[in-house]
Write a structure and sequence with these properties.
By secondary structure, the protein is mainly β. 6% of the residues lie in helices and 36% in strands. The protein contains 2 helices and 38 strands.
């Protein structure tokens, strides 16, 4: 009886392993492949992978694609993106997981997942893609992980944006019935003007009441207005804006503005500001508690203001250079951050101010032959305790 049960369990395992399939897409259906991506989607089942061969001469697949299943899209030729002259629209459903990797959306086409809010959660991963228009992940209950990609603008309700080039990121409120247990992360992104033409202001907008947030090691070059605007927060949270490079030049703008009526805390630490002309480096409304410490301003005109802003005398001015292409920093920002070990650099020296410092150092995300990291998220404790104290660690990676 035991042998029979073991055989049945093993047979069930192989049945489960064999359930996912690879569907090949090639121009004209060569070699018995599907001629279009949409045809492969129609034939696929949940969990399948669609492998797309780039067309000769980088010609695009001419189609609008609707994804209504849990699918993964990848290129057949490593290092070569498949081009699409059309949009990708992902329909929402509880527990659906869609991964789009190595796509190049041309001619002002976007990747989007909107519609009614979910009663559960859904995940969309956009990895190593070039999107000529926007990435729009606006459905309530949707977690989006946008990694190593390029696009015009991003709008989402929850997830991570890591090592991505864009000109604006907007976080709106998640109206899904089951909020995620995870925080929001923006890490090592290039949020630049002009990425695709017109100036966008602010470069980062947070308007979420559901999630604690972390804005870490980003390069923000916003010539037209505020760099970061926090208009709402989750009550009771402790949020961080740390180790960013923030440039802005509009005389009526703020580097960081924290507003809203939430009783929450924002730590603004170890940031390198390049002001040009400005109203305030950091400004805050009366309700949130904002702490600004160990920031460096490359201008004597920098100032901090606000009704509930705790400004430490550790903020200072001085000259520095940070090169977002090489990742090299020089000047007063080196070893000038918070001296607490929690903020130490990877080599355990004192924290640099700006994107080269801390656990999420720029070189971790912009490196190697592809100029992108394979490990795109790693969250581990900075302090290990003796005794019975427990801790959690998690990470994510992808093969390019």
């Amino acid at each position: 009886m035991k042998k029979q049960l073991l055989f049945m369990a093993v047979a069930g395992l192989f049945t489960s392993m064999a359930s996912a399939a690879d569907l090949i897409v090639r121009d004209g259906g060569a070699g018995g492949a599907y001629p279009t991506i949409s045809a492969a989607v129609a034939a696929a089942n949940d969990g399948d992978r669609i492998i797309i061969r780039p067309k000769v001469g980088n010609l695009p697949y001419q189609e609008n694609i609707t994804v209504d299943k849990s699918l993964t899209f990848v290129t057949e030729i490593a290092g070569d993106k498949y081009e699409i002259n059309g949009s990708i629209t992902i329909t929402t459903a509880n527990d659906r997981v869609v991964t789009i990797q190595d796509a190049a959306m041309v001619n002002n086409n976007d990747i989007g997942a909107g519609g009614s809010s979910l009663t559960g959660r859904m995940t969309v991963n956009v990895l190593n893609c070039i999107v000529s228009d926007d990435i729009l992940m606006t459905a309530g209950g949707l977690t989006a992980n946008i990694i190593g990609s390029e696009c015009d603008m991003i709008t989402m309700v929850h997830g991570k944006v890591v090592s991505t080039v864009t000109k604006k990121i907007t976080i709106t409120d998640d109206n899904g019935a089951s909020p995620s247990n995870d925080d929001l992360y923006l890490i090592a992104n290039k949020i630049v003007y002009p990425a695709h033409g017109v100036t966008e202001s602010p470069a980062i907008i947070f308007a979420t009441t559901k999630y604690q947030f972390h804005i870490l090691n980003n390069f923000i070059n916003n010539a037209g207005g505020n760099a970061i605007a926090i208009s709402n927060m989750k009550v009771g949270t402790t949020n961080e804006i740390a180790n960013n490079f923030i440039y802005f030049s509009n005389s009526n703008s703020q580097g960081i503005y924290v507003g809203g009526n939430a009783l929450a805390t924002v730590y603004i630490l170890n940031n390198a500001f390049d002001n040009g002309q400005l109203a305030f480096t950091v400004d805050a409304s009366s309700t949130p508690y904002v702490v600004a410490q160990y920031n460096i301003v490359d201008s004597s005109s920098g100032s901090f203001a606000g009704n509930n802003l705790d400004v430490s005398n550790n903020n200072s001015a001085g000259s520095y250079v940070f090169n977002s292409s090489t990742g090299i920093a020089t000047g007063v920002i080196l070893n000038a951050g918070n001296p607490d070990n929690t903020y130490a650099d990877i080599d355990l020296t004192r924290n640099d101010v700006g994107p080269t410092g801390g656990s999420y150092a720029w070189s971790n995300y912009w490196t190697g032959i592809t100029n992108r990291a394979h490990v795109f998220f790693l969250n581990t404790p900075r302090t290990i305790y003796n005794g019975t104290t427990t801790f959690s660690a998690n990470g994510s990676a992808t093969t390019k």
